[in-house]
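User: For my dataset I need records formatted as: sequence, then structure tokens, nothing else. Please produce one.
Assistant:
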Amino acid sequence: MSALAQKLDIAQLALPRRSKMRRLAIWGSLGLVCLAAMASLMLMQGFDRQLQDFTETYAVRHTAQELTHSLAQAEASQRGFLLTGDNQFLETYEQSLMAIDDGIGSLVAMTADDVQQNDRVKNIANDISARRAEMARAVELVMARRSDEAQSLTQTGMGARLMAEVSKALEDFIAEEDNKLLVRSEAIDQTRLGLAVALLAALAAAVILAYALLYRTQRQVSALAQRQEGLVTLNEALEAQIADRTREIEQARAHAERERQRVETLLQDTNHRIGNSLATVSSLLALQMLRTSSMEVRNALEAARLRVHAIASAHRRLRLGDDLENANAAEFLTAVIEDIATTQVADGRIKVVGEIDAIDVKSRDATTLGILVGELVTNAIKHAFPDDRSGVIKVRLHRDEGGIPTLTVSDDGIGMNVEADEENGLGSVIVRQLAGQFEGETKYAAGTKGGLEVTVTMPALRYPNEIGEEH
């Protein structure tokens, strides 16, 4: 009996211990549920702030890209006005300047809380002001009928250097915003992970609480069911919010892709319009040539028409890559050469062939390179084959042993006085100035099979990734 009594005493002592442990488990489970819910709410608030930062950073990046496009539009319109004097280009130029002012003002306001980016925007604004002053001076000279001085001003290369500095600064600015987007995207992913962990913790606490409340009264079981239902509702609300935020991000990405395609279309349309406008100028020069009886004037007008047509072909044939910044020299120059051969050699007596390596070049260099090729081929067609002679003009673009891009245009025509052509020819002056934009030099030599061979080295014409490494 004593042994049985002892067991009963032990059982009675164990009951309070089990009850106490059960209460501790219940309260502990409830505390864990509350902590998980609070953590979920805090994570959702952080998630909202991160999405807002993501949206603001995207807006800053988009504004910077629009500013880059406005700068390119202003420069293209200014060049078109310098070349043609057409007031339509002047209107586009002024509209682009207004867009530049709006873009800079927006960037200054958007980056007010970021001292480093705000300072960059102010520096970019100063560089743009310098470039605008140079462009405005050239436009004023053209409007004052001092086109020669305007051309001299643009040929100094100062404007191109200023534009390159501004473009580099904007690229750095956009790259910094891209880094912010990447960091904030990673933060959003981490928040999602934390939110999932909090939800899992809440569910685990609910399971523990349900298991503990199975030993309680029916009233406590009903209360547990209600709490579980509340947690499920909260879980569904959180999942719905996450789905909404994810959908907004996908919409933002789709919008960015549409904007990229729109910018690409605008750039191609701009180049095509410039080419068509220059082609119109070429046609007007041809009509004027037909109405002129002076042979000297006819020759001058014909030379001008051929050069304008070559420039128009360079603009029309320019096709940019997916990044809207680079072009393939093989595709671009082959089309330019075919265009020149088709339009300037009507009877087919002169054959123009090209050997162009697939070199990727910056878009701003591609047009200059096309004009340079057009000038050399046009000079060969004009001077190397008089009296309806037939022959071949060969255009070759390759990299020499040192990796420097080199352009060679040779013909099997009558040849020229190399020294006189280097010093006095207008075509040689134009070629030398165009080659100077690539920090290169021009060499004239007699061909091995007669005719003339012109070689232009272009050290500054680099692959786009090489340009990035130099900077």
